[in-house]
Amino acid sequence: MAPPTAPDGAPSTGSDWDPAGYLRFAGERARPAADLVQRVGAIEPAVVVDLGCGEGALAAALAARWPAARVTGVDLSPAMLAAAARHAVAGRVDFVAGDVRDWAPAAPVDVLVSNAVLH
């Protein structure tokens, strides 16, 4: 079995993603996520989590979809978290390092989204 690869074709350990390479396919990844999020029936969630948030665009879209929610993006890659920081909004949208294989919420979550990390 071949090792996992990042979107730029380089081998990936899960923590060495290249945000620039990842963004080359942003449109292809964003459309299914946007379609899915529009189907979520939550009206006013207080806590929204994006597991495997990558460069943060989906977390920002989640914050726009639910303006009163606190949105947290979780990712293992330091490079992706650095890129995601541009979407951070104090007290509203934040990004934290975490491995989804052992991640657990500190409090109840109203909406949990994962665009690709669990596939």
Any overview of this molecule?
By secondary structure, the protein is of the alpha/beta class. It has a single domain, classed as Vaccinia Virus protein VP39 (Rossmann fold, 3-Layer(aba) Sandwich), CATH 3.40.50.150. The chain is built from 4 helices and 4 strands. Strands 3-2-1-4 form a 4-stranded parallel sheet. The radius of gyration is 14 Å and the shape is globular. Residues 1-12 have low confidence and may be disordered.
Q: How would you summarize what this structure contains?
A:
By secondary structure, this protein is an alpha/beta fold. It has helices at 19-23, 26-39, 57-65, 78-84, and strands at residues 47-51, 70-75, 93-97, 111-113. It starts with 18 loop residues before the first helix and ends in a 6-residue tail after the last strand.
Kindly report the oligomeric state of this protein: single chain
Class by SSE composition: alpha/beta
Basic shape: globular
Q: On the 0-100 scale, what is the average pLDDT?
A: 82
The ordered H/E elements are HHEHEHEE
Give the count of helical stretches: 4
| Distance from first to last alpha carbon | 17 Å
What is the CATH level 1 assignment?
Alpha Beta
CATH fold-level assignment: Rossmann fold
**Architecture per CATH nomenclature, i.e. the level-2 architecture:** 3-Layer(aba) Sandwich
Low-confidence stretches: 1-12
Radius of gyration: 14 Å
Strand content: 15-25%
Number of strands: 4
> Could you give the order of strands across the largest sheet?
3-2-1-4
Number of domains: 1
Helix amount: 25-40%
The major sheet is characterized as: 4 strands, parallel
Q: Mind telling me the CATH superfamily name?
A: Vaccinia Virus protein VP39
